[in-house]
């Protein structure tokens, strides 16, 4: 049962890492232009602080997910990983609300 749980955990973490990496690449490489009353405007992720924050978060997430895969289960470091799995999303959520205020 433990091996099945570890396999499912690995598959889900790899899927999350791939999705986050794809989101970071799409966010960095995408550009948009629009015309507003005859004025051409260009939109990039770097123009908004909240998008910069999300791009950094999407870049950190794959690294963290892949790092967690090499931590052996049952060790003290694994307990730290479980704690950070709970705490980090809460911190990112609070920081995203902070950046939305600007």
Automatic annotation (TrEMBL):
Keywords from the named record: Cell membrane, Membrane, Transmembrane, Transmembrane helix
The UniProt record lists the keyword Membrane: yes
Membrane-spanning parts: 47-70, 77-99
Compartments where located: Cell membrane
Domain Casparian strip membrane protein: 5-78
Pfam families (UniProt xref): CASP_dom
Signal peptide range: none
Segments forming a coiled coil: none
One GO CC term, this protein: plasma membrane
Main location: membrane
Bilayer topology term: Multi-pass membrane protein
Protein family: Belongs to the Casparian strip membrane proteins (CASP) family.
Subunit comment: Homodimer and heterodimers.
Protein name per Swiss-Prot or TrEMBL: CASP-like protein
Organism listed in the record: Oryza brachyantha (malo sina)
